[in-house]
Write the structure tokens for this entry.
Amino acid sequence: MTGLGIAITALSVAVLVVGFLRHKQRAFPSYGWVGVVIFVTAEWLMLRGVEPLATYFTPVAWTAYLLMLDAAVFAVVGHSRLHDEPRRLAQMAALSVLLWLIFEAYNLRLQNWMYVGLPMSWTWAAVGYVWSFATITPAILETADLVEAFGWFKPARPVRFSRPAEWGMVIFGALCLLAPLLLTRPTARYLFVLVWIGFVFLLDPINYRLDLPSLLGDLAAGRRSRFYSLFVSGWVCGWLWEFWNYWASAKWHYIFPMFQGWKIFEMPIPGYLGFLPFALECFVMYVTAAWALGLIKAGKRELSAIRG
């Protein structure tokens, strides 16, 4: 199954590379080449078990990926998050840590994954945790930026939901997030999928009503590109997360009580579908958190490096 995983990961990345080469309009920025050098060096050292790269390979690889990805976005459309708004990207990375800790808190009860191979020193283990968590939201949104830059997804007929339907989504999302906490732990361990979708239903209608960037707002405007680009991003990032995790010395193992005999890398096969709604969650949770902290204002419908 490892061979199949490598093939799917390579094909997913190849789609991005081909799309980039077809749509590239300007020179690849120098910081992107820095990312290439960092990634190739880290990969070479990790495969030879050289420390500390073997232990910290996951955050190093994702940092290099973000440099390469942002440079690719800039080369396609002439603007990007890191190039244009590095401070905003740093804020996103900090929020990414806090937002992922919500899922870690759920995992304390549901026990769906565990970490192994961490440094003995709590300080150095914390460095790995924070660094890794800081790359999650930026990776999802930057990958979606690149996919959206390709122009694959065209506008379509607007879709609007009634106010009662929106409130129904909020209530459904709240129930999804409460159920794993209220049911018995043996039952709740089967229900982490509700956490992967709950925040989308809970928060996106609220973001829409606050006139913030939202998926419902996109649908009402006939825009499909962000929704589908996030789906593609979740797919690509999901395979990269599991691929890079598989070879690293410090890694996570999935221990939820389903499909343990059906693994590709460390993830049971059905789990890869969870990365698609997780990408939507990264977007809606970031919007809500950034608004709550005053980082974005109501009335700002756009939240992407892709403009115009």
